[in-house]
Amino acid sequence: MNDLVQLIINLLFFPGGLFAIVVGLFLMGIDRKFVARLQRRVGPPLYQPVIDLVKLTRKEIVVPETAHLQAFRLAPLLGFAGMMVAVTLIPIAGVYQGFKFSGDLLVLLYLLSLPAIALMIGGSASSSPFGAVGFSREMVMMMSYELPLLVVLVTVALKVGLATGGIATFSLSEIVRYQLENGALLFDYTMLPALLAFLAFIPGNMGVVPFDIPEAETEIVEGPILEYSGTSLALFKLTSSLKMVVVLGLAIALFFPTPLGENMLLNLLWYILKYLILMVISITVVRASTGRVRIDQAFKFYLKYPTALALISLVLTLLKG
């Protein structure tokens, strides 16, 4: 019974639920403001994402006459539910241990694909030609950035597994514990290519410039989410903010989970600061300084550079281990 209560608290309040939504919206507000400043604009207020969500919840949900009703309505819920569960799997060193079971890293890999799958289902179910184009682009993007991510996760799992006398460790809590005892993988030269590959994976997975091809406003008018409105569109926006928390949190857990001490509040603030630093490096600066690339360019980029970097780390790990 206590385990069930703890699970509900984790899903609804911390580290998922309310906490993850607030942090995600805060990060999105900071990102938009910082991009505006880099481009010499005033930009929206930090609480603009909250205003947008409140406005959307007060609007009517309009469903196209030719849309597949069930799939159209369920698609936003699929991505949102996936991210609500995923955020509870990520440990916060010195604050939250996560769920201790072998294979949670693989579960997280599958959950990370749900927002993209939700966009594809929603785009195809809307019966819009722009949604269909967005569906195909999202599928290509997903196929391209999933490969380097998989190699990075296998590399980290092998690194920790070989160092602890095993083969591979697909438990995030074990990976974090290893780094707390032996130092962060960020400072291991064999892991630097994998870290760079993960940083390259982040903007593609988040669907931001230069990899916002599936939702390119000037080309396909928001693509998969063109026909969405009201609460359904708000769920897609919330999913995006939660995905940012999950992806950045995964990067921290894999490479630099080190806390500042025993104080839980201080460690939580330090964790949020790491969120901000990582977001600015991997999302904000990239978004402010680049233009959108074509889908074929994005596909070739991920198959060449991030995948090659991740493979270098994998080879170095095997040779050293």
From TrEMBL:
Alphabetized UniProt keyword annotations: Membrane, Transmembrane, Transmembrane helix
Membrane-crossing residue ranges in chain numbering: 6-30, 77-99, 105-126, 147-172, 192-213, 234-256, 268-289, 301-319
Origin superkingdom: Bacteria
Record protein name field: Respiratory-chain NADH dehydrogenase, subunit 1
Signal peptide span: none
Pfam families: NADHdh
GO cellular component assignments: plasma membrane
Membrane topology classification: Multi-pass membrane protein
